[in-house]
Amino acid sequence: MPRGNGQGPMWWHGRFRGCGYRITVGREAILDVLTRADKHLSAEDIYIKVHTAYPAIGLTTIYRTLEILVNLGLVFKFDFGDGRARYELAEGSKRSAHHHHLICTDCKRVIDYTDFIDDEIELLKQTEKGLSEKYNFMITNHLIQFYGLCDKCRKKKGGD
Hints:
By secondary structure, this protein is of the alpha+beta class. Helices cover about 40% and strands about 15% of the residues.
């Protein structure tokens, strides 16, 4: 099942080993599922995909491994307000281009926002620089989520 993603075989091996963790079949399978994902997956979604190929890997292993991957910074964990954590790779996948999320509070739809304009990029750079200087903090990444109503839900509620 695990095959890498075009950035060299198993782009995450070095980071994993560098932090003192063994590379197991289960960990490879979970990262492979996340590499191929075209949406934000819950632990249960990942379990279903991994369990098909590796029936011995249980849901508890999925949760434990996801926690390790989040702590290593290989995977982002999101709360989109629907009561289920969702996961995506922090790097190394087709979805890894930096993006923000627009989350509909009604239907729970999540839109990945990537088409930043120059003014937005400049504002984020200035914000990061200002926060870094103010708190003497080296920022390595950021996650931004905007909550509101998508066009369909707004129309259903009689708005715009």
